Amino acid sequence: METSTFSLSDVGHFKPHRKSHNPFRFFDLPAELRHKVLGYILRFRGIIDIDFDNFRRTSVFLVSKRFHHEAAAVLYGSNTFRLFPTTGRADSKRTKPLISKFPPHYRATLTSLELRLGPFWTKPPACWKVSDALGLKDATAVRVLKVFVEIDPTHPIFHGFRSGKNFYTNFSGALLRQVISSLPSLDEVRFDKYPSVSYEGQLMTRLLEEVRIGKKRITVVRDKNLPK
């Protein structure tokens, strides 16, 4: 009976058999599947504000010009962006709203914006204003404006701290009116708020009035029974 011999010197010459695979071509997928895959990377929970910084995900923009184009459509078209910054550095004179930094062709792909009212209620930052530089006229795909109200400074609890009882109500009402008139394709204003804010309070009454004057549809997230 013959026997085979095996020595340690043979180890370096041993190559395991591996099945070869051709690389998968991403753009061979149908467009709807490509967008679904990109959505797993580029759709974010919550609202995107000026402090947004996620290069690990947005680095996919650097793959190619075509990849950049499709990824941009998903990022800007699938997320909600805050109109005016609410972070701690928002009151800096050099701070600009996030969407004002986008090129016009990116603003044209936005579909959802949020106006958050309540932060800086005693002294709104200088950048909280609607101007040509904000670029709302470019946001032609925005159909829904989300408005979240944190507080109503007309409530008696704020007496002694506010800059006049009607100051923030007038400021917020005028700001919302300008935003509504500047968005060319806006259909709906969707309200949400903290439980302490009443739809029958002075601030919410003014905001609802501005939407009705602008002839936009009103929807609410909670407290479905709106005052007439």
Strand order of the largest sheet: 1-2-3-4-5
Order of helices and strands: HHHEHEEHEHE
Quick one: overall form?
elongated
Radius of gyration computed on alpha carbons:
26 Å
Quickly count the helices. Answer: 6
Average the pLDDT over all residues and give the rounded result: 85
How many E-type strands? 5
What characterizes the major β-sheet? Answer: 5 strands, parallel
Q: What class would the helix/strand composition place it in? A: alpha/beta
Q: Any key phrases for this structure?
A:
single chain; 228 residues; alpha/beta; five-stranded parallel β-sheet; 5 strands; 27% helix
Structural commentary:
The protein is of the alpha/beta class and 228 residues long. Helix content is 27%, strand content 11%. The chain has helices spanning 31-42, 55-58, 65-78, 104-107, 167-182, 202-213, and strands at 80-82, 112-117, 144-149, 188-193, 217-220. A five-stranded parallel β-sheet has the order 1-2-3-4-5. Helix 5 runs parallel beside helix 6. It starts with 30 loop residues before the first helix and ends in an 8-residue tail after the last strand. The model has no long low-confidence stretch (mean pLDDT 85).
Provide a short characterization of the protein structure.
With 228 residues, the protein is an alpha/beta fold.
Blueprint of the fold:
Layout: H1 31-42, H2 55-58, H3 65-78, E1 80-82, H4 104-107, E2 112-117, E3 144-149, H5 167-182, E4 188-193, H6 202-213, E5 217-220
Parallel strand pairs: 1-2, 2-3, 3-4, 4-5
